[in-house]
Here is the input.
Amino acid sequence: MVDRSAHLDRIRWLFRTFPVVGVVGARQVGKTWLGGQVARHERAVARFDLESPADRVRLGEPLLALEPLRGLVVIDEVQRMPDLFPVLRVLVDRPRRPARFLILGSATPDLLRQSSETLAGRIAYHELGGLDLGETGAARLSRLWQRGGFPRSFLAATDAASFAWREQFVSTFLERDLGALGFALPPNTIGRFWTMLAHYHGQIWNGAELARAFGISESTVRRYLDALAGTFMVRQLRPWSENLGKRQVKTPKVYVSDGGILHALLQIRDARALDAHPKVGASWEGFMVEQLARRLGATGDECHFWATHQGAELDLLVVRGRVRRAFEIKRTVAPAVTRSMHVALADLGLDSLDVVHAGRETFPLAPRIRAVAAVRLLEDVAPLG
Here is the structure.
């Protein structure tokens, strides 16, 4: 029902240059499955799952265990044994490199600091996100928005089964996974914080307000946010700022990364409830920001929002080199040009501004401004060059 071959192609391409490839992404997003697909085409494969006590025992002396291996070595949930990274450096620096290593992890590269320090120049990362429109097809856009991109949630037989899976995912993540990933945080407190964050979805981060609500310090709520961002549960969209002679917003926007998880936290069980919910517009915005970033092939460092204190704003500004492409997201079937759009075009020197809407057609609105139908995103929005 879904096509994830682009990820497989990317990993094969990275292995042409790097002896170690790291696939990172949220729990249950499909990393183990992807590792299995890579391994299918290898003659010699050794696998280690560091959630298995037996495999952790096998790697008790990692150099002794890994040095004789040839071909592809797959190590799943590598963040459980960060001491492996110096050993991997020794192994990939051997003459003729008899083995390559595919490491799978549920934490961002920033959290896997030892890998970036120890394996500098030897490792490349590929982030595996949830399913996107390119994998599901635009015909299932509504289902993808409502259920989110976790494969088991998206592919569930019914909306009720999908919602039940997501509720169980949230519970397991809080009670077991956060601690296993190295975060010593109280599950009940972080659960309340995550739910409150869902109500702030798509808004400017206000740590002071959240700290007051919890009766804790601003630095503590920031630590909670960093934990959820470091495990791919939250996206922080950075502000874009330059010397324009205007006061610009310099605090990030915060989104729950997966729309299905957002809806579970907000107790939105089906499409009818979503349509009637006060956060429907913010949910749609977050969903389309994620889909646009994936379609464009933009990294987190290339994605921004822009806003001035005078009221001009852009939901998404993607900057790569000298290319600047901007997007406004409107859950409407009748998009229109606003003064804010003209201000953004003039102030930021944009190459284009697309207004992504919920209608069925793509059409020009003004010079350098188009209305782009969300269902036509794959046809009408070209990836970054």
Summary: The longest strand covers residues 313-320.
